[in-house]
Design goal:
Keywords: Carbohydrate metabolism, Glycosidase, Hydrolase, Polysaccharide degradation, Signal
Number of domains: 3
GO biological process, one term: polysaccharide catabolic process
Structural class: mainly beta
Family: Belongs to the glycosyl hydrolase 12 (cellulase H) family.
GO molecular function: cellulase activity; polysaccharide binding
Pfam family, one: fn3
CATH topology of the largest domain: Jelly Rolls
Strand content: over 45%
Number of helices: 2
CATH superfamily of the largest domain: Glycoside hydrolase family 11/12, catalytic domain
Shape: elongated
CATH class of the largest domain: Mainly Beta
Length: 458
């Protein structure tokens, strides 16, 4: 099916309407809005409520609730379920096509210290008929964009769906997050669309944004360098929709009505099996009043820690590290409601100078990356030993769905997902301290942002 937010391709029109003052935007009024793209701010512009009938010309009206929501009072839609919905009546914080709220601190980079504390909650009511979904819509962009189409990731969280509708793309897995089980769907329509569909319908959700975005990043569909630009909650109606209501909505660094108790601080991680490109971490478990849902592994080479992985186990092996490099690691725990523990004390790890061949080390550099491919160049091979190298071999795992389309200054073979790169006659002999390099180009599934890691040299 077409995705619910193709309406953003008419962003120039929406921006023009905003510039002409054609949005209904009184500061404190709580009106009934029937204009297709009408909107109004509430709570002194803390949030904006929008009618947003982008996919139909049929009537839709919403009665805005100044305390933080709205009710669809008229909805005459009859869109085909094989196509796009009629619109997305919603309430949001942040910026949507230059229509921005006050005090949200958005856009915010997903690697920023305050990102992990961002949370949102919503309560909803559903009518007994109609075809619709009830969903969050979280937008990410590679830049701190406040207007126009976001081109990074669109993260949708479906609390409920009625009728024969489905997210864009196809189902790629299931996951337990925020105290529930979700189907995970992925597609790309010029930007990544990752949808989490709750296995059993719910009228409420209280969660931290990073609970879901961490899963997006771990699947290769998003990046920590991207910016969260808006957090929206509402409905996508295909047929009918009268009676759909957001009863309450919150966004910020606190609030919510569910479990507010974070897990205890995890134990300081201990490092073992440190090689030139990997290290294994283990730590003592956290405790929680309800239950620990998982752990985040945070890594730093300077002052700033960013999440590099995690899971439900109290151990993690970090791969793709550079030889002779010092890293610091901390651990934090999260519960089913998305509450985050304080970060553990840090452990410092220095990788080995290389393995095999008297001290062979390999350092890859991503030269360029695009939607469905990338170039890794140079991949530098260095003799860190005290004797000469007579030939070298570099191996690394190739992510699923990736294909090497060209390689230069080396030969290669692929077997079982492992790439083996070998030196040529002119660059196989390296004196102590000497370096050479090769490069390669590869394709990958559209929307997958992964590049290979875990290089080893012998």
């Amino acid at each position: 099916m077409r995705h619910a937010h193709i309406h953003l391709t008419i962003g120039a029109l929406l921006a023009l309407l905003a510039g002409l003052g054609l949005f209904a935007t009184p500061a404190q009024a709580a009106p009934v809005i029937c204009e297709k793209y009408g909107s109004t701010s509430i709570q002194s512009n803390r949030y904006i409520v929008q009618n947003n009938v982008w996919g139909a010309d049929t009537a839709q009206c919403i009665d805005v609730n100044q305390s933080g929501g709205f009710t669809v009072t008229q909805s005459a839609h009859n869109n085909s379920t094989s196509g796009a919905p009629a619109g997305y009546p919603s309430i949001f914080a942040g910026c949507h096509y230059a229509n921005c709220t006050t005090g949200s601190n958005l856009p915010m980079q997903a690697s920023a210290p305050g990102f992990a504390a961002l949370r949102s909650s919503v309560t909803m009511s559903y009518p007994g008929s109609g075809t619709y979904n009830a969903s969050y819509d979280l937008w990410f962009d590679p830049t701190p964009r406040t207007d126009g189409q976001n081109t990074g990731a669109e993260l949708m969280i479906w609390l409920n769906r009625q009728g024969s509708i489905q997210p864009i793309g196809s189902q790629v897995g299931t996951v337990n997050l925020a105290g529930a089980t979700w189907q995970v769907w992925f597609g790309n329509i010029g930007w990544n669309v990752i949808s989490y569909v709750r296995s059993s319908p719910s009228t409420s959700l209280d969660f931290t944004i990073d609970t879901f975005y961490s899963d997006v990043v771990s699947r290769g569909y998003g990046q920590r360098s991207w910016y969260l630009t808006s957090v929206q909650a509402g409905f996508e109606p295909w047929i009918g929709g009268t009676g759909l209501a957001v009863n309450s909505f919150s966004f910020g660094t606190g609030g919510g009505t569910g479990d507010q108790t974070p897990p205890s601080t995890p134990g300081t991680p201990a490092a073992s099996n440190v090689t030139s490109s990997s290290a294994t971490l283990t730590w003592a478990a956290s405790t929680d009043n309800v239950g620990v849902a998982g752990y985040d592994v945070l890594r730093a080479t300077g002052d700033s820690f960013t999440r590099v992985g995690g899971g439900t186990a109290t151990s993690y092996t970090d791969t793709g590290l550079s030889p002779s490099t010092t890293y610091r690691y901390r651990i934090r725990a999260r519960d089913a409601a998305g509450n985050l523990s304080p970060e553990s004390a840090a452990v410092t790890v220095t990788t080995q100078p290389g393995t095999g061949g008297g001290g062979c080390a390999v350092t890859p550099t991503t030269q360029t990356s695009w939607n469905n491919g990338y170039v890794i160049q140079p991949v530098t091979v260095t003799n860190r030993g005290t004797s000469a190298l007579n030939g070298w071999t570099v191996t690394f795992p190739l992510p699923s769905g990736h294909t090497i389309t060209g390689i230069w200054n080396a030969s290669h073979t692929v077997s079982g997902g492992t790439v083996t790169v070998r030196s040529l006659a002119h660059n196989g002999s390296l004196a102590p301290g000497a370096s050479t390099s090769f490069g390669y180009q590869a394709t990958r599934p559209a929307g997958n942002t992964q590049v290979p890691s875990g290089y080893t040299c012998a």
